[in-house]
Amino acid sequence: MSATLTEIQKLVAAGDVLVSSHGDEELANDRIALSAVLHGVAAAAVVEDYPTFAKGPCILVLQRDEQNNPIHVLWGLRKNTSRPAVLITAYRPDPNRWYNDFLSRRP
User: Fold this and answer.
1) Around Cβ 46, how many Cβ atoms within 10 Å?
2) Which domains does the chain possess?
3) Among 1, 59, 73, 91, which residue has the least CB neighbours within 10 Å?
4) What does the pLDDT look like over 40-86, one tens digit per residue?
5) What is the predicted pLDDT for the residue at 1?
């Protein structure tokens, strides 16, 4: 498992979360409940991991909403920090751009 995801899961479980303004907008645009994202991170699957990203480690994960629909969530930590978990963005993946598992991009 990803060290970044493990850390994000611990922070979310402790309620140590910041939702970016972009993340807040995207949640609203795709009608994704923040509660679904917060509860779903415990069962998240890694899509792409960026542990050395210039702005701080981040990770794109596949989560599910209350109706079991896929959600991609980009979580991160600001550079040189260990908290809070930052919800950078979340969206409903386009099935035309992703394979059926929503873990791999189509060419």
Assistant:
1) 14
2) 3-91 (3.30.2310)
3) 1
4) 999 999 999 999 999 999 999 999 999 999 999 999 999 999 999 99
5) 74
Dist. CA 56–CA 82, nearest whole Å: 10
Give the number of C-alpha atoms closer than 13 A to the C-alpha of residue 34, restricted to the C-beta side.
Answer: 14
What tokens appear for 57 in the block? 């480690």
Helix then strand count (H, E) for the chain reads 3, 5
DSSP result, 40-67: HGGG-EEEEEETT-TTS-EEEEEEE-TT
Q: Tens digit of pLDDT for each residue in 7-42?
A: 999 999 999 999 999 999 999 999 999 999 999 999
- pTM comes to 0.96
Whether the CA torsion 40, 15, 54, 80 is positive or negative: it is: negative
Answer yes or no: are the C-beta atoms of 76 and 5 closer than 8 Å.
no
Report angle CA 48, 51, 56 to the nearest 5 degrees: 115
